[in-house]
Amino acid sequence: MTNRTLGTLGMLGAPFLGIEYIIQANAGTQDMRLAALFGIPYALGWLGCIWALYRMDAAGSSRIGRGILTVMLVLLSLANVWDFYAAVYPSAGDLLYRITDLSWPASNLFMLAVGVAVIRAGRLSGWRKYVPFAVGLWLPLSVLSGVLLGQGAMAAVVFSALYSAVMWTLLGYAIRTTEEPYSLSVNS
């Protein structure tokens, strides 16, 4: 897949978490099946963006840079396992459910490490190199907005939803508009 395709998938998946948050807040419930179903396109788009960053060596070509992106790919894959599992068995609560569910906050926090690695590597140009770090700020800023505005307060939910949609869309756009790291051609 090309950066254009992976970035577009990231942009298409970006709003799903925010939409799910607002639906759940308006309903006053926490429906795990709904969260999982909305999480699938969100996580797949995010996974595509991380795969593109990996292909571009955006965090550097060292073992550490590639390792950081590999860990992120594993965390997002586990998050996707939770999405599919919770969509079918929303209240399973077994060990697989709990471990894969933990990959969601872990992947959000680990995005800060991805962001720092991308900035340090300097492989992305201009504003693009700061976007992964801005994405990584989503969980800390969402928690902070909950503390300042009240956990579950609609203003905190809307802030978190909008920040998520805008930053992940920007990540997809940054990927989509970055030149391919190499071209594959078949000479006949």
Task: Please explain how this structure is put together.
The protein has helices at residues 3-13, 15-27, 32-55, 63-88, 95-121, 131-136, 138-149, 154-176. Helices cover 76% and strands 0% of the residues. The chain starts with a helix and ends in a 12-residue tail after the last helix. It is globular. The protein has eight helices and no strands. Residues 182-188 have low confidence and may be disordered. It is an all-alpha fold. It has one domain.
Strand content: under 5%
Reported for the largest beta sheet, the result is: none
Q: Mean pLDDT score, rounded?
A: 91
What is the count of distinct domains? 1
- How many β strands by DSSP? 0
Estimate percent helicity. over 70%
**Head-to-tail CA distance between termini:** 21 Å
User: In angstroms, what is the radius of gyration?
Assistant: 17 Å
Secondary structure category: mainly alpha
SSE topology string: HHHHHHHH
Principal-axis shape: globular
Low-pLDDT stretches are 182-188
The total of helices stands at 8
Protein name: TspO and MBR related proteins
Organism: Nibrella saemangeumensis
Keywords: Membrane, Transmembrane, Transmembrane helix
Transmembrane segments: 34-54, 66-82, 102-119, 131-149, 155-175
Descriptive key words:
188 residues; 76% helix; mainly alpha
Summarize the structure.
The chain crosses the membrane at residues 34-54, 66-82, 102-119, 131-149, 155-175. By secondary structure, this protein is mainly alpha-helical. It has helices at 3-13, 15-27, 32-55, 63-88, 95-121, 131-136, 138-149, 154-176.
